[in-house]
Amino acid sequence: MLLRTCPAVLPVILAFAGPAQAQAIERFERHATLPIARTVQVPQTAETLYLSGEVASPIAAAGAHGEAPEFGDTETQTLSVFRKIERTLRDRGYALGDVVKLTVFLVGVPEKSGRLDMDGFTRAYVRYFGTAAQPHLPARSTVQVAGLSQPGYLVEIEATAARSGRAMLGDLARPAPSHD
């Protein structure tokens, strides 16, 4: 509002502000035993994208006699979820290397006496994070849950991505919308 009523203010603000400095996202300390970052620091100037929980796509459709669709084991579902997350990130101009935080929900499986299949999850996870092609590791939490939104789902993952470089004063330089 101030800029619309007093346009001479913008050059003064920009003169004192100096050039906007892009601050890098910093990943500190790889966890001692897991392929994750212990902490990730995102500067205030970064753009942040929050992805809602994503679940696997079916590997086999529901049967004609009412059988539930098949989604595969933990590893198969995790690969499906990461493909979907990667596609969503790409559609928004981000990449897997921009992921700074993952929250992973895993359902226990009978072959692990009702415990989550961390080995299956990890086999899929390390194909996407900490690789030579994509070395960035996110901070991550993994929890076991009793169930997810549909029978057969074993994996749901929420992701937060951030990329640095957005100038904080960029919004000030944009003209105010006209209400004429």
Automatic annotation (TrEMBL):
Alphabetized UniProt keyword annotations: Endonuclease, Hydrolase, Nuclease, Signal
One GO cellular component term: cytosol
Keyword Hydrolase: yes
InterPro entries: RidA_CS (IPR019897), RutC-like_sf (IPR035959), YjgF/YER057c/UK114 (IPR006175)
Position of the signal peptide: 1-22
Keyword Hydrolase in record: yes
Single GO molecular function: endonuclease activity
PROSITE patterns tied to this protein: UPF0076
Pfam families xref list: Ribonuc_L-PSP
Top-level lineage group: Bacteria
Family named by the database record: Belongs to the RutC family.
Xref: PANTHER family: 2-IMINOBUTANOATE/2-IMINOPROPANOATE DEAMINASE RIDA (PTHR11803), ENDORIBONUCLEASE (PTHR11803:SF59)
Listed name of the protein: Endonuclease
Source species: Sphingomonas pokkalii
